[in-house]
């Protein structure tokens, strides 16, 4: 998957529900269809949007009853290591060093410098639902080299600096923790450690592995947040969704919170759902 494509999918993913945790719990195994984007799709065709002016002009085409949603233009310089770590896991450094012919003792910063030398600024016009711009800005910022996101939603260019953002709102603090865990945790150890430090006792972080049973060799591992009290219910919903889509899946999680650990799993072929 292209370096920016995963992030753009994630941006659309985090907007399908007003509450960040509800989104993860209900839609954990899929992203929304990019064809739903009202800013870059017209009559089923993709629009070429290269500037903030072109992007902002798309606001005039949005439905009047769109509840304050906007087309916003974002510019970032991606950190190439975020996707590498996400895709390759804890052995990312060795894998990329062998592939690129680097010395195995090369530092992380040296790899970042080498891979980012020829990277251009990434620009994107995104459909932003009301009240979700913070989530998008922070999600974008944690994947950049400098923590900077330049954006324009029709009021001129503004700058979001991750290093200057210190949320005090309970929801924003929790959303920040969830974004970081999903995008930056690439090992089970790190994910579970973050789970013990969540600011809300009602939630846990789970290191989950999704296996498509009929297709050997395909699996995906990531760090997901779940509400503790509804964990088993959510697993049942996900299993039923997989059954409905005829997607043979086995979903296995190890979770942590400040009270201990929990394991959960489902198998859409056997119908088994278990939390212990």
Q: Describe it for me?
A:
The protein has 276 residues and is an alpha+beta fold. It folds into two domains: 3-78 and 119-164, no CATH class; 186-275, no CATH class. It is 36% helix and 24% strand. It contains ten helices and eleven strands. Residues 1-6, 11-35 and 215-219 have low confidence and may be disordered.
In short:
The chain has helices at 3-13, 20-27, 52-57, 80-88, 92-100, 108-116, 133-141, 170-184, 188-195, 231-244, and strands spanning 41-42, 45-46, 70-76, 122-128, 148-152, 158-161, 203-212, 219-227, 249-257, 260-267, 272-275.
Average residue-wise pLDDT: 81
**N→C terminal distance:** 35 Å
Global Rg: 20 Å
Strand order of the largest sheet: 8-7-9-10-11
Order of helices and strands: HHEEHEHHHEHEEHHEEHEEE
Q: Give a count of the beta strands, DSSP E runs of length 2 or more.
A: 11
Number of domains: 2
| Percentage of residues assigned to helices | 25-40%
* Contiguous runs where pLDDT drops below 50 for at least 5 residues: 1-6, 11-35, 215-219
Strand content: 15-25%
* Shape verdict: globular
Q: Count of helices?
A: 10
Protein structure class: alpha+beta
Most strands sheet: 5 strands, antiparallel
